[in-house]
C-alpha cells in the first residue's frame, strides 16, 4: 500500500499475528499498543494509517475524527519555537502544525491546552501535517447569528489573528471578529476568549469586544494611568488634548476612554493637568 493512504481510515485484512502485533495486508503493521482487541488471521479491521518515526506505514484502531479533508478540533500538546505546535488528533502520534501555518510572531502562537481547527495534509516527504482551517472553511461550516445576541456575553476560540483584529468561532458555531481597538492585548491563535457582542452584522457574523463596559473599564484604565505615573516619576506627557494615536500606542485605549479615566482621577483629586502633562498630586 502506497503512502498516499496516510491520514485515512481503511479496512484491511489481518494476515498474521506476531510478537509485537499484527501484519495487515500490504505489510502494514498494527502494534499491540494500537489496538485493545484480539484479532484473528483473515479478519477485516478498520484502521487509521500513519507513518511512525522511521517513516514506516503503520496502523491504529484508534479512529480519529480528523482525517485528510476532514476537519476537527485538536488540542495543542507541545510548542517548539522555530518548528511549530504539535496537536493531539486522537492517536498516539502527535501531529505537527508547522511554523508556515502559524502566525509570523511567536508571541501569538498557541500554547499547550489551546485548540486548533485542523485537517490533515502531507509535506513533500509524505509525512502527516495538521493544517488549520482557512477562512473559506469557516464560512461554509458556521451558522448565522440571531439578532438577539446584541450586548450578550459570548465565548469563542481564535482561528485567525492579526494586528487588525482576531477572528473567532463561538461555542454556538457563529463567526465573530474582534477589532484591535476592542482588545487590550492580541489573543493567541487557538485561545478561548470571553467577550460581549457589540454588533450583529447583516451577514450573520458578529463584532465582539473583549473590553469591559465603559463603567467597568474606567476603573481599569484609571489604574493603568496611575501605574504609568508611578513608573515615570509622577508625570506623563499626556493630557485630554493629546493625540489619539499616541494615547493608543501607550495605553492601548481610545482617547475617549483615556479622557473618562482622567476625569475620574481628577474628580478623586489624584491627578492634575498642567503644562501639557498629567501629574500625580502627591508628587
TrEMBL record:
This is S1 RNA-binding domain-containing protein. Gene3D superfamilies: Nucleic acid-binding proteins (2.40.50.140), Winged helix-like DNA-binding domain superfamily/Winged helix DNA-binding domain (1.10.10.10). The lineage of its organism: Bacteria, Bacillati, Bacillota, Bacilli, Bacillales. It holds the Pfam family CvfB_1st. Residues 151-211 form the S1 motif domain. It comes from the Bacteria. InterPro entries: CvfB_fam, CvfB_S1_2nd, CvfB_S1_3rd, CvfB_S1_st, CvfB_WH, NA-bd_OB-fold, S1_domain, WH-like_DNA-bd_sf. Belongs to the CvfB family. It comes from Virgibacillus byunsanensis.
